[in-house]
Amino acid sequence: MKYSFDTYRLYQREKVFAYTIRVKVTMKEEIDCKVLKSALNVAIKRYPYLAVKVITQPDGAYDLLPNDAEVVVIRTGNNLPKLGSEEVNGHLVFLDYEGRDIYFNISHSLCGGHGSFPFVMTVIYQYVKEKYNVEPDAPNIRKPDSPLLENEMVEPTVDMLPDMPSSYKYAGKKPQMMIKDYLNGMYNPFKRNPNYMEFAFRQKDIIELAQQNDFSVVSIFIILMAKALDKVLPEKCKVIGAETANCPLDQMGIDDAHADLLTHIFVDYDREMLSRDMGFLGTVTRGNIILQKDLENCQEEIRQILKVYEEVDKITGKKDKIKYIEENNLNRGKDARHGTFLCNYTGRMDWGEVADYVESYFAIIEGHLTMEVTSIDNRLFLSIMYLIDGSKYTKAFIEVLDELSIPYRVRGPFPKNIVRHQLDD
C-alpha cells in the first residue's frame, strides 16, 4: 500500500454512522482535569502512530503527519468537537470527562477496540501516578518511557498469509436481519435513539459457566443474546445469527501491531437449537468460531480488504477514492453477510495495581444489538448498543441471566455521544 494502513478507513462516509470508538473509564474518585491533561500529553508521546494529523496529498489521498500539538481534554457536553478539527488541534484523539468518568474518543482508522487498550492503559497509569504520587505495580502496562515493541507499527501485508486455499467456509442460513430496527434507527427522527446499556459481572461467575459448558468468553455472551432474541422475535424468524469480529494479526506474526484489521465470524442458530442444553450450544458456537478464526479460512476476507486498499491508491481524486471505498465495502451490497446481532470480546486487560483505582471500562461504538465485552482484573464489562429503544431486548437478556442464575449489575440507557471526523483541508 502506498500510504499508511491507518488512512484507509478515513475514506468511509459518515452520513449515518461514525467510524470512531468511544471508551468510558470510570474511576473511583472525581476526575482532576489538570492531572488528566498532563497524563494524556505525557502518554501520547509513547504512541507516535496516534499523535497524528490528516493531510491530503496532491493525488487526493489522505495521509498522516506527526502532530506535536497538545491533545485536548474537555468537559463532557452535548456538542462534542469532531476528530481532526481545529477544536482538538487536528488530532484524531481527544478526551472528555464528567464526574468520575473519562471518555476516550479515538478514530477507528487508527486502531480498533483491542488496539486502543495499550494507549488507554498508559494514560490511566500516568494519571494514577501523577494524581496520587505513587508508582503502581503494573508490569503489563506500557509506560510512557518504554520503547515501541518490535511489531507495534508493522502493517499487515498479503505475504503474511498462507500460500494455500481455504479449506473451510461457513455456510450461512440467512439469519433474521434487524432491517426495520435499522431503518428506524438511521432515518426515523421519532424512533432514532442511539443509546447503550452497561452490564458488569464478576469474572468467576462467567468462568464457572464456561468451565461447565465448553465456553469461551465470547461464546457465552453470544449464546445469552441468541437465547434472549429467541424470546422476543416472532416465530416467522427461523434463524438467529451471531456475528463476531476476529483480529488475525497474531496468526500473521504481528500480534503487537496496532493496525485495525478485522475479519468476521458467523454462527447461525435454528430456533429449535436454542432450546438445547448449554453444553451443546457451547460446543456448536465455539467450534464454529475456531474454524472461521483460523488464518487459512479467513485469509480470503483479508485479501479482499488489502486489494480494496491497493486499488484506492491507483485512483486520483478524493471523491473518487471515497466513492470506490463505498462501492467496495465488504459489509455492504448483495453479497455482504450480517448477523442478527454482533458480539465482540475485545480482550482481557492486566492493569496490575492500577485496577484498584478503576471502577469500570466500557467500549461504545455504532450499531444496533451490538455488544462489546472487556475484562479487567476479576471483572467483566458488557456494553449493548442500540439505535432505537432497546428495552425489550434488554429485558429479554436480563431474563436469560436470571434463568441461568448469573449475577450482574445493570445501568442505563445512556446516550452514545459518539463523535465524527472533520477531514477538510
Structure description:
- The chain is α+β, with helices and mostly antiparallel strands.
- It is built from 9 helices and 14 strands.
- A 7-stranded mixed β-sheet has the order 9-8-10-12-13-7-14.
- It is globular, with a radius of gyration of 21 Å.
- The mean pLDDT is 94.
Identify low-pLDDT runs: none
Largest sheet: 7 strands, mixed
Which shape, going by the Cα principal axes?
Answer: globular
Order of helices and strands: EHEEEEEHHEHHEEHHHEEEEHE
Assign the structural class, choosing from mainly alpha, mainly beta, alpha/beta, alpha+beta, or little secondary structure.
Answer: alpha+beta
The overall average pLDDT, rounded, is 94
DSSP, total strands:
14
How large, in whole angstroms, is the Cα Rg?
Answer: 21 Å
Which percent band covers the strand fraction? 15-25%
Number of helices: 9
Distance between the termini: 23 Å
User: Helix proportion of residues, in percent?
Assistant: 25-40%
Main sheet strand line-up: 9-8-10-12-13-7-14
List keywords for this structure.
single chain, 425 residues, alpha+beta, seven-stranded mixed sheet, five-stranded mixed sheet, 9 helices, 14 strands, 23% strand, globular
Detail the topology: elements first, then pairings.
Elements: E1 20-27, H1 33-43, E2 52-56, E3 62-66, E4 73-75, E5 93-98, E6 101-107, H2 113-132, H3 179-187, E7 195-202, H4 203-213, H5 217-232, E8 239-246, E9 263-270, H6 278-293, H7 295-314, H8 318-327, E10 341-349, E11 358-364, E12 370-376, E13 379-386, H9 391-403, E14 409-415
Parallel strand pairs: 4-5, 8-10, 10-12
Antiparallel strand pairs: 1-6, 1-11, 2-3, 5-6, 7-13, 7-14, 8-9, 12-13
